[in-house]
User: What shape does this take?
Amino acid sequence: MLNQENKYEKMREQHDETMGKHKETMAACKAVEERKWSEAADLFYKAADFTRLVQQTTTCVEVCFVMDCTGSMASLIMACQETVITIADNIREQCGENMRIRMAFVAYRDYQTGSSLVYDPPGKPEVCPFTEDIDHLRSFVRSQQATGGGDGPEDICGGLREALKLGWQGESRHLFLIADAPCHGSKYHGMTDNYPDGDPTNLVPEIQFEQLMGALQVNCKFLKLNSDTDKMMAVINGHCKPKLEKEVPEIHLQSGGDSLAKELESLVTSVVVEDVKMHLAS
Assistant: This one.
């Protein structure tokens, strides 16, 4: 009888501890929504004991950044190169040291004004394929120059094309599109556009997102910087919601200067860690 009481007491303690961690995690997510980055980080660290769930499990997390690297995006390029290693460290710290983390980066720009599909220097989208060598990825990001971008829209479809080619294989897959301008095609914006009929290679962004989130099961997020992309995302989500019963969530990056890197780090870490927790609990 005593052994049964001890067993029951231990189970109750484990239940209470688990619920406590769950509450801390939910509070952290709420802090992220309210952009209280320091509070969110503290709460996630308090909830990090869930790594016991993965001590005997090797899970592969994949994070791909698809980023507009035209002239207006210099601060985001710098923020990304500053944070990729910290993001990987945060995921390992909160999800367990045996967590495999693969990162990729796609830098896209645009075609030259009045050209026949000739890209602005340095050329077509540049790609660092998935790698577990995060130092190598940071060096790749550091080598990117913010240049080009003649008309308002940019070659988002070219960036997504390269992302679709990546060797996705992880249990937890994430793509973050970071842009301050829409794709080509007047139905996606109200800007002057050298290609008002849409992508000159006949790519369709809503179809590309459908492929990413559907067949490839990639969790996609759009990190927006202004309202110029609102019409584009309305078209994309208007297509994806009835097809997949889900949308591409939009998250507005609001910080500037030194705070931008911290906001990017906290946001990406919280999204990925929460997905890993849900995967392991399922």
